[in-house]
Amino acid sequence: MKHDPENLLDLLGEDAPSVRMRAQLEHEITAEKNRLARRPVRRRPLWATAAVLAVAVVMGAALWPTGGPDQAASVLAELAADSALRRAQGARRSLDEAELTVEIRQRLTTMLHREPDPNVRLAVMQALAARNTDPTVRDALLAAVAAEDSPLLQARLVLALRRGPGELSPAEIERLQAIPELDEAARTRLPRS
Amino acid sequence: MDQPTSNEDLMTAVRDGHLEALAALFERHHRPLFGYARGRSGDTDRAEDVVQETFSRILRYRRSYRPGAPFVPWMLRIARNVLQAEGAQSPDLALTAAAEVKASDDPVRDLERKQRREQVMAGLAELAEEDRDLLLLSHVQELPRQEIAHMLGITTNAAKVRIHRALATLRRQIVGADHGEAKS
């Protein structure tokens, strides 16, 4: 039994980071639903449109974050909280914003360099990577790769840059490859230019 | 008592726009898929990315699913494409070990299991890539031999024989590692 690989292979599925993966999937499902909801629809009778809108408004109010200035302010408050968990939650909640306000964006990019807790930094990286088509955000993420002192987070950051909506250009890949302190684990995750 | 909804029914629902059904599929399959990706890549961090990217692609390409087609092989084809796109990189056990440092109620038991897992991953890394794939598909994903054979383009008999041999090789490697440890 001790050496039975059939049983030992079961160990591979242990410790799956289920909570983090589930949260990410839920975020993607919500984003896709929002995208579908924004899509133009075929013309339908006025009464049907009114009924759908009424149901959507009631369900939306019950289920989803309200967004807008209040939401932005509460995200900012969370990002400035003493508790690392609340800061990470703030970073995650920023993903619910249709667009980042200048203040949230600035706060997140500053946290990329100054946040002491690596788990919060990871949440910030993920939040910013989802907006990596914004040139300011993109530049901050690229700069953070060189500044990041945790090899694990460096590798995660490279992966986050690869997986965001904007693809790494050959010039950006070269910029990253030229970082002398780039850890080998992060280097192997770079696409070939 | 209600019959549990099949994977195929859930995926058909996702395809038809009931996106929340994907959460149920995730609950059922993310652990074995994580084990499969971890065994293939030898890297816990990368395995997480493979699982997330696989489910992202299922969501994005949901309309390419043919209703009624077996879900698990379809999901695994996507996962294998993701693994391939990530590049055939050698297992990175140092990163895996560092990533697994965590607090626990029973650290001794956890350390024992971690050591065992590392032995399995080291053993898997020594196998030929296709043999590693065969073992993971059969013993982590628990796919029927016939399905594995179809996926890899070999006969069912060939799949059975190669899985048997790969298991024997893995067993020898694990026993060898234990003996090496006992001597040192």
Account of the 3D structure:
- Chain A is an all-alpha fold and 193 residues long.
- Chain A has a domain at 74-187.
- Chain A contains eleven helices and no strands.
- Chain A has helices at residues 5-8, 18-38, 46-63, 68-79, 84-93, 102-114, 118-129, 135-147, 151-163, 170-177, 184-187.
- The longest helix of chain A is centred in the N-terminal third of the chain and has 21 residues, at 18-38.
- The radius of gyration of chain A is 20 Å and the shape is globular.
- The N and C termini of chain A lie far apart (47 Å).
- The model of chain A is unreliable at 60-66 (pLDDT under 50).
- Chain B is mainly alpha-helical.
- Chain B has two domains: 1-87, RNA polymerase sigma factor, region 2, helix turn helix motif (Rna Polymerase Sigma Factor, Chain: A, Orthogonal Bundle); 104-184, Orthogonal Bundle (Arc Repressor Mutant, subunit A).
- Helices cover 74% and strands 0% of the residues of chain B.
- In chain B, helix 6 (107-126) crosses helix 9 (156-183) and helix 8 packs across helix 9.
- The relative contact order of chain B is 0.11.
- Chain A binds chain B through residues 2-6, 8-18, 20-22, 24-26, 28-29, 32-33, 36, 151-152, 155-156, 159, 163, 185, 188-189, 191-192, and chain B through 17, 19-20, 22-23, 26, 30-32, 34-36, 38-39, 44-46, 48-49, 51-53, 55-56, 59, 86-87, 89, 92, 94-95, 98-100, 102, 113, 116-117, 119-121, 123, 135-136, 139-140, 167, 170-171, 174-175, 178.
Q: What portion of the residues of chain B fall into strands of 2 or more residues?
A: under 5%
Radius of gyration of chain A: 20 Å
**How many β strands of chain B by DSSP?**
0
The general outline of chain A is globular
**Termini separation of chain A (Å)?**
47 Å
Seen as an oligomer or otherwise, the chain set is heterodimer
CATH architectural grouping of the largest domain in chain B = Orthogonal Bundle
Mean pLDDT of chain A: 79
